[in-house]
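Hi Prof. W.,

I finally got the PXMP4 protein prediction working! I wasn't sure whether to trim anything, so I left the full sequence exactly as given:
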Amino acid sequence: MAAGGDALRSLLRAANTLLQQRRYHAALAVLKGFRNGAVYGAKVRAPHALVMTFLFKSGSLREKLKSIAQATYTHSRNLACFVFTYKGLMALQSRLQGKKIPFHSFFAACIGGWLVFGDNNPINSQIIMYLLSRILFGLSRLAVEKGYIPQPKQDPFPLVAALIWGTVLWLFEYHRQTLQPSLQSSMTYLYDDSDVWQDVSDFLLYNKRTDSK
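And this is what came out:
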């Protein structure tokens, strides 16, 4: 038993020594990036999938749990693979050119995005749309900082909010098929299902009646 403990301590010391070696830093950073991508993807997707599945999906408990597990695995795997690819390409480019330049980030992320997120599925679609909204805000702020567009005299956020909500509800009412399925489900629950009830039970307690009278 003591020999096993000594061996474990020796192994931990060797691992810690390896982790302190600067020459291995780039490779180890790629591996930790893979780890962090997997953990973060699971943390983000699991609660989201849990809520959306039990709110909007039908089926048995086993089918729902399987759906949650699959969505969590896909998100976790994709994010881990993307971070691994991105950091690996960043390290490679920096080593080849002797320094890090802004184009390296764009090129590495483009390759990673193509390889990992190029498959058009619901998980990837949600991630890309999430990023797109942040990019638009970020580019707008950058354009103001660089002087490409003038600094607004008033906060433009109220106008942006009005236009976004106006557009999405117009699409939902008249071109619903263009919206992503999870958004359609959410908006159906909010705006369509609230038009239908039979008595106080499905007016206040439940969204829809499950019994047939």
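The chain has a mean pLDDT of 90. Does that look reasonable to you?

Thanks,
D.
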